[in-house]
Amino acid sequence: MASSSYSNSPCAACKFLRRKCMPDCVFAPYFPPEEPQKFANVHKIFGASNVSKLLNEVAPHQREDAVNSLAYEAEARMKDPVYGCVGAISVLQRQVMRLQRELDATNADLVRYAYNEMPPPPPQPPESSQYGRRSTTGTGHHGGASFNQSSGFYYPSQWNDPCGDNDSSGGGSM
């Protein structure tokens, strides 16, 4: 026998099939003796002959992925003989859709909560005084300007009369 890691003990496939594991065994690199159930499932679902043919047809760098796919499908078929891994995929897709709906509902609740917790918008002045009134005093805060805390905007000094008391402004009000 060759001096490889699997030469001391037959691979799981050869052990299961009760045959001598040769150094060029196609199963040995993919079905180690520590994982006998992996080959047992694959053999029960696909058959050893079909797996051997498949591994010989697949490029060597793709064999490990092929065996992993076969093992996954075989295990899924053992759990669900009708649907196999397609059943598992369907369950996961339904779970994703349910969680997406739950996330959408939670986001809507957050928006409603945030909207209800925000202070009400500042009252709009009547349409005739939409652009503010001129101030004759010219004394605003922040160097001739005032800050309206309810709206969060800075207004130039000629617009800093938030009460609208200045009807006789020098700007020519009608």
Structural class: mainly alpha
Number of strands: 2
The general outline is rod-shaped
Q: What's the average pLDDT?
A: 77
The Rg value, from CA coordinates, equals 39 Å
Series of secondary-structure elements, N-terminal to C-terminal: HHHHHHEE
Unreliable runs: 1-7, 133-143, 151-162, 164-174
Distance between the termini: 110 Å
Strand content: under 5%
- Going across the major beta sheet, what is the strand order? 1-2
Largest sheet, strands/sense/barrel: 2 strands, antiparallel
- Give the helix tally: 6
Overall helicity: 40-55%
Structure, explained:
The structure is a single chain. By secondary structure, this protein is mainly α. Helix content is about 45%, strand content about 5%. The chain is built from 6 helices and 2 strands, in the order H-H-H-H-H-H-E-E. The chain has a two-stranded antiparallel sheet with strand order 1-2. A hairpin with a 4-residue loop joins strand 1 and strand 2. The N and C termini lie far apart (about 110 Å). Mean pLDDT is about 75; it is low at about 1-5, about 135-145, about 150-160 and about 165-174.
